[in-house]
């Protein structure tokens, strides 16, 4: 079993889509593996989809199972500070998440996205760029498909959205490129250390990245790592903007690529998102012409800001409620 040598007893914490993906992945690796699932909900989603060989404990913790395990795979929704997990960790039990299992199994290039806002848009956009270039791409993680389920289809490129929760239990994810889009207060109930602790979790995305991409208009996203770096922003450096005859263009190192007003996505924040996506697409070897075609075509996720009509130079958009206050304030 790649990356799981000596692991025979695994306890999965939390069921649902992610938990089921972990169970199925482990059984694909070793059909005889001893797998148990703990979920503190009385009737967790997916309980009726577990194979008969997998034991399930609902509504409470089972410390005997935890302490006897070779590995615990914790749902992103379960904080590592949870007393039961702390007890297991102090006893020497390895605790990982589904993304760490993905990292140990994947053998194709991966790019990943984190940040307080815009993750899903950039993740989807890079996926559309890859599809436009004819690449067999898998898009998922914190959006859409569970990362481990995507391995079944043997994609040639993976694009992952990663939350701070997922990154807490990820230690060996090797990435062609990673981007940290922005930082604002979110999930503060999970992080007693405040914004600094929250950001430290997100910075873990860069630990094994060949290229680190940060937002130079939000310097809290710049990592202190010994790896290649580039950035995106609204000036003319690296992935940025240049002005030609009064019109803004997306540019790379001053080389104009396409007019910013031809991006199908609406809003100034989506210009930044487009630049971040271009940086990842370039790192993944996606043809720039294909990336620009995707930018002209892709209108975004159905529940996000979308263009309704472009008439006489005026772009009319529909903007649903956002999930965070900083997202609501963005132009």
UniProtKB/TrEMBL annotation:
Alphabetic keyword roster: ATP-binding, Ligase, Membrane, Nucleotide-binding, Transmembrane, Transmembrane helix
The protein's Enzyme Commission number: 6.3.2.9
Gene3D superfamilies: Mur-like, catalytic domain, NAD(P)-binding Rossmann-like Domain
Pfam families with a match to the protein in the record: Mur_ligase_M, MurD-like_N
TM annotation in the entry: 6-27
Residue ranges constituting the Mur ligase central domain according to the UniProt record: 113-281
Protein's recorded name: UDP-N-acetylmuramoylalanine-D-glutamate ligase
Source organism per UniProt: Photobacterium aphoticum
Lineage of source species: Bacteria, Pseudomonadati, Pseudomonadota, Gammaproteobacteria, Vibrionales
């Amino acid at each position: 079993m790649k990356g799981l040598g000596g692991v025979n007893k695994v306890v999965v914490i939390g069921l649902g889509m992610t938990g089921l993906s972990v169970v199925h992945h482990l059984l694909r690796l070793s059909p005889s593996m001893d797998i148990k699932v703990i979920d503190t909900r009385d009737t967790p989603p997916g309980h009726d989809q577990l194979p008969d060989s997998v034991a399930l404990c609902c509504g409470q913790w089972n410390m005997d199972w935890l302490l006897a395990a070779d590995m615990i795979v914790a749902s992103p929704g379960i904080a590592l500070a949870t007393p039961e997990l702390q007890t297991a960790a102090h006893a020497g039990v390895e605790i990982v998440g589904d993304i760490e299992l993905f990292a140990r199994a994947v053998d194709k290039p991966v790019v990943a996205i984190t940040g307080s806002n815009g993750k899903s848009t950039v993740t989807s956009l890079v996926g559309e760029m890859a599809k436009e270039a004819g690449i067999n791409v898998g898009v998922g993680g914190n959006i859409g498909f569970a990362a481990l389920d995507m391995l079944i289809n043997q994609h040639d490129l993976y694009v992952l959205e990663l939350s701070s929760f997922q990154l807490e239990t990820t230690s060996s994810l090797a990435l062609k490129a990673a981007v940290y889009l922005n930082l604002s207060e979110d999930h503060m109930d999970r992080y007693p250390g405040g914004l600094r602790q929250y950001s430290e979790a997100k910075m873990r995305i860069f630990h094994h990245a060949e290229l680190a991409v940060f937002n130079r208009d939000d310097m809290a996203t710049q990592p202190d790592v010994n790896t290649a770096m580039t950035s995106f922003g609204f000036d003319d450096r690296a992935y940025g903007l240049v002005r030609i005859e009064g019109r803004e263009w997306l540019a790379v190192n001053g080389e104009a690529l396409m007019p910013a007003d031809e991006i199908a996505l609406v809003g100034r924040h989506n210009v930044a998102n487009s630049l971040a996506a271009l940086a990842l697409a370039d790192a993944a070897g996606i043809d720039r012409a294909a990336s620009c075609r995707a930018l002209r075509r892709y209108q975004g996720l159905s529940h996000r800001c979308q263009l309704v009509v472009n008439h006489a130079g005026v772009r009319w958009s529909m903007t649903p409620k956002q999930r965070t206050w900083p997202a609501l304030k963005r132009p």
